[in-house]
Amino acid sequence: MVIGYQRLIGFMPRRNILLPTLCIVLLIAVWSFRTPRSSLDNWLDAAAIRGGATSSSPSPPPSSSLNPPSRSHNDVDLSTPDAPFIGWPLQRACDEATWVKGLIYICDNNSGGIGNIRNYIHTCLRYGLEAGATGLVMPKIRKRNETDLADLFTDYLPFDYMFDKKHFKDAFTFSCPQITIYDEVEDIPGVGKEPNIEHITPKKFGNREGCDWKDQNRHTDRFGDKFRKWLHDPKNGQSPPSEDHPRLIRFNWGVLWDWQVYRDGPEFANTFGNILRFNDQLLHLGKTALKKMYAYAEANGAKDGKFLGVHLRTESDALGFWPTYNTQADAYLKQATKRGFEVAYIATGDALEAQNFAGAAIEMAQMRVVTKTDLLEGEDLEELESLSWDQQALVDFIVLLGSDFFVGTMPSSFSVYMAMKRHLKTGGLYTRPYKTGTEGDGLSYLVGNYEKYWEGWLFMWDGMWP
């Protein structure tokens, strides 16, 4: 080999080698900079396979369409009660909308507890985006009768009865500036002293033949076009909306689980819910109770302050076909024993049932049970007791979010919302839908009947924003 090399040198003088060699190196360098990185990496990998030189450390495999791309915001815990609002999915929906000047949506025909109230508002807002509404009146909240929990239709209360008004307005200001938010109907220009508010049911803008009356709206993709056609049809006796002559739209009661949320993609479905954040008072009381709950659990032998979260839904407004106290208690205590919990936090509006469950927990699972009134004291307890029944439930909600495992009942919208919100821990922005009727995510279990989609109200899982 040495002799051959010497002959080659002899054939071509050294000074003649230098210039061609420099040209070749420069050509390779220029080609490398101009070639996409992935192409160059693939070429180098191919060279290595053919027996070319390899580096001491293996090169990373080429990118594949089967691998998920890197995604911003995916490290944000969306399951916390004060999770930040990630606005780009809403901004994308707004950029795709067909806007109608003078179209105003009023999203206040709601009722019930937190699971229902927020989903009424979210569903109305989502339809408003699809319709192209350029105006929105701050939603109000229908208060429950404190002495008759089944009476859901008393006075209207302002948005901040439950939610953070500034947070809501900021979310739309930065992510959907095409929409103007009005505090009151009277603030809308051109509305007049006696505004005409039109009532609609979105499902009627599509053929419902063969559908169960509880079925979601299967025509949401075409709702915008059909609604705008109706809006501009002179046969309806109204002029098309304009800035000088606005048209005000309010839904008939019951538009609650209409929208199949994952049709908008997981990134929208998993972030849209966070436009409704609990107000500062509720967050303070909830976080204070949660902190004390962790301390109580540790003081009673629970490692790292872990505790079981329990939602016992047996109050006077519970429907007859829902799981009974015995059914719920038996299922919850089995989970407690199976998972070895020593401490539990219970949320219920029935103090007597809470005592019954606490006694059964000691006897059957050797587990101590406490409530928010056991944890809060002084001014915090006084503030808690000044709140309404539904406001106090939001304090419970915040504590239960912090539990190590949650047990609730199906079909309580409170329990469903809790399970879905906790499920966001599993995948962040791109969390896939919860596997209904299972313990699939290892974070929650809801006792109930999962055999019949409509009679068991399983449609809630498809129509609720977590």
Describe this structure in words.
The chain is globular. It is α/β, with parallel strands linked by helices. Helix content is 40%, strand content 11%.
Write the SSE topology.
Layout: H1 2-11, H2 14-34, H3 37-49, H4 88-95, E1 100-106, H5 114-131, E2 133-137, E3 141-142, E4 156-157, H6 165-175, E5 180-182, E6 197-200, H7 220-231, E7 247-251, H8 266-269, H9 280-299, E8 308-311, H10 325-339, E9 343-347, H11 351-365, E10 368-370, H12 372-375, H13 378-385, H14 389-401, E11 405-409, H15 413-423, E12 444-447, H16 460-463
Parallel strand pairs: 1-2, 1-7, 2-5, 6-7, 8-9, 8-11, 9-10, 11-12
Antiparallel strand pairs: 3-4
Helix pairs in contact: 9-14, 10-11
Offer a quick outline of the entry.
This protein is of the alpha/beta class and 466 residues long.
For the record, give the distance between the C-alpha atoms at the N and C termini, rounded to a whole number: 73 Å
Helix tally equals: 16
Biggest β-sheet: strands ordered side by side in the sheet:
5-2-1-7-6
Give me the Rg, rounded. Answer: 30 Å
Query: From the helix content, strand content and strand pairing, which structural class follows?
Result: alpha/beta
The tally of strands reads 12
Major sheet details:
5 strands, parallel
SSE series: HHHHEHEEEHEEHEHHEHEHEHHHEHEH
Question: Which regions are unreliable across 5 or more consecutive residues at pLDDT < 50?
Answer: 1-15, 32-71
Content of β-strand: 5-15%
Give the averaged pLDDT, no decimals. Answer: 86
